[in-house]
Structures are given as C-alpha cells and as structure tokens.
Amino acid sequence: MKNKIFVTISFVLFVFCFAVFYVGLQKPNTYTPKLDKQIELPNFEGNDFFSGEKVISDNILKKNSYYIINIWASWCIPCRAEHSFLMALNNKNFNLLGINYKDNIINAQSFLNELGNPYSEILSDKNGVTSIELGAYGVPETFIVNKEKKIIKKIIGPIDNKKFNEILELIK
Amino acid sequence: MKKLIFFITFFIFLSNNYLLAVDKPTELENKIFKNLRCLICQGQSIYDSQSDFAESMKIVVRKNLSNGMSEKDIYQFMRKNYGEWVLYNPEINKGTYLLWGLPIILFIIGGAIIIRKLGVFKK
C-alpha cells in the first residue's frame, strides 16, 4: 500500500516537472514585457535636441492630448525602416515626441533632413538615462500615452504595417 | 636629473591612481548592479554586462544614489519601470510564492525519499 502511494507521488511529481519544463521550453527565451495594465508615464528629463536646454517631462507633456513617444537614432537601421510610418502618423490628432538615443547630433540632423521630421518635439538622450527613466529597452521603441498620461501600449522594435494600424485603432 | 625622473614617475603614478579611484564603483553600487538584470542580455546582471543598456542603467543607479535614493528605492524604481523580472532577488509576494517555496518543498521531498531509502528510522 505504502509503496503504491510512493509510486503515485513520484509519478505525479515527474509529470509536474515534465509539464513545467515542457512549457518553459516552448517559451521564447528573449524577454518581451507584458503590458496588461496601463502604467503611469514616469517622470523623465532630457535636453532639447535643438537648443540643448534641459527639459522636464511635466513641462512638455500637455494634458488632454495623446502622445506618441518614439525612441530613435540615426545609427539604428530599423529606425530608418519605421520612419515612413512616423511620417504618415504626423498628420493625425496627437503629439509625436522623439527621443534621440545615444546619437551624434550632426548625424541625427542629417537623418531628419533626409527622411523628414515627424516630431513635434525632440529630446536628446546622450547617455541613455532618459530612456531608462522611461522604462525603455533600446531603439527603436514606441510608447502610446493616453490623455491621463498612462502608457497604453509599448511597441518594442520597429513599427510595421500591423502595428501602425494598431496605433491608429488606439488613438481614434 | 634623478630627482626629476623620480617626481615625474611619482606624479604619473598619483594621477593614474586618482583616475582609477574616480571611476571605481562603490561597494553599494556594485551590490545594486549585481542585483539588476540586464534585460537585453541573456543571463547577465548589469554588473557583468557592458551593453549600452547596462551602461545607461548604471548611470541611472549612480544618479539616483546621488539624489538621495536608498537601495530599496532604486529597486522599487526599476521594478516600476521594468517589472519584477529586472531584480535577481525578487521579493516574496503573490507572484513569487512558488518561486521561493518550490525549492524548499523539493528539498524536503528529496530528503524524505533519501531517508526512506536508507531506512534510517526502521531500526
């Protein structure tokens, strides 16, 4: 009898471990954050791209308007690919804030001259601090911020056709 | 001449030491760096990593420390921005009961099996 219980427990334990590892193996091992609840947009600061003056997030983010925060750099190849989507977003009803990540200002300016400037405001993030304060991982990355200053969507990686439509859906 | 060479060497030594001392992270900084995960690397803390992300994270930790934040405040700040996953030493809460409890449970079960096999209590 005792032996039977022992065998049963061992079997259950084995199945449990097998299930845990099996499920674990199926998961992709690169980390992608879930955003199942809206999170408050953290305070951040940076320097104005053109004037170099220090800017605090509270001063630039106006209430009652949607914001799209896009982190970009001239050296980032996927940023080049998503730029046309940002240009297409430009006419819509919200503000587009750019954060220029660890970039050379001359290269960044020629990038904008070549492909156009979709941003209503650009902050320069020389050492990556602004991006960390925002909770970003790298470039390119896009946050959709609603009127209550809550992040309702994080897009890690370049915007493509599908994500572009998702954004339009969100800020309708 | 000998004196001059001595002084030059002495000053080079001093300035070198000084430069090294400035960049060296403190014990507390290192402790925090070791407990923060580099999210774009695999299985590395920001202490181990020299990626852009880790380097920026270190700057933010230093900045926050100099702004008067405590170690706990910094973990809180990072957790708010990046979630529980960013900490190597997550706190015990609803989501991490299993994480903390399972090794102990497995240890006890394993111990019980060994004791049973060895027949310690049979005699």
Q: What topology emerges from the helices and strands here?
A:
The complex is a heterodimer of chains A (172) and B (123).
Chain A: H1 2-26, E1 39-40, E2 45-48, E3 54-56, H2 57-60, E4 67-72, H3 77-89, E5 95-101, H4 105-115, E6 121-125, H5 129-134, E7 141-145, E8 150-156, H6 161-170
Parallel strand pairs in A: 4-5, 5-6
Antiparallel strand pairs in A: 1-8, 2-3, 2-6, 4-7, 7-8
Chain B: H1 2-23, H2 27-35, H3 52-66, H4 71-82, H5 97-118
CATH architecture of the largest domain in chain B: Orthogonal Bundle
The portion of residues forming beta strands of chain A comes to: 15-25%
Question: Which percent range fits the helix content of chain A?
Answer: 40-55%
CATH fold-level name of the largest domain in chain B:
Helicase, Ruva Protein, domain 3
What value does the Rg of chain B take, in angstroms? Answer: 24 Å
Q: Alpha-carbon distance between the termini of chain A? A: 66 Å
CATH hierarchy, class of chain A: Alpha Beta
Q: Which CATH architecture of chain A would you pick?
A: 3-Layer(aba) Sandwich
Shape verdict of chain B: elongated
Could you walk me through the main structural features you see in this protein, from its secondary elements to its overall organization?
The complex is a heterodimer of chains A (172) and B (123). Helices cover 40% and strands 23% of the residues of chain A. Chain A contains 6 helices and 8 strands; from the N terminus they run αβββαβαβαβαββα. In chain A, a hairpin with a 5-residue loop joins strand 2 and strand 3. Chain A is elongated. Chain B has 123 residues and is mainly α. Chain B has 2 domains: 66 residues, Helicase, Ruva Protein, domain 3; 32 residues. The mean pLDDT of chain B is 84. Classes of the chains: A alpha+beta (172), B mainly alpha (123). Chains A and B meet through helix 5 of A and helix 3 and helix 4 of B.
Q: What labels describe this entry?
A:
heterodimer; A: 172 residues; alpha+beta; Glutaredoxin; eight-stranded mixed beta sheet; 23% strand; B: 123 residues; mainly alpha; Helicase, Ruva Protein, domain 3; 2 domains; 5 helices; elongated
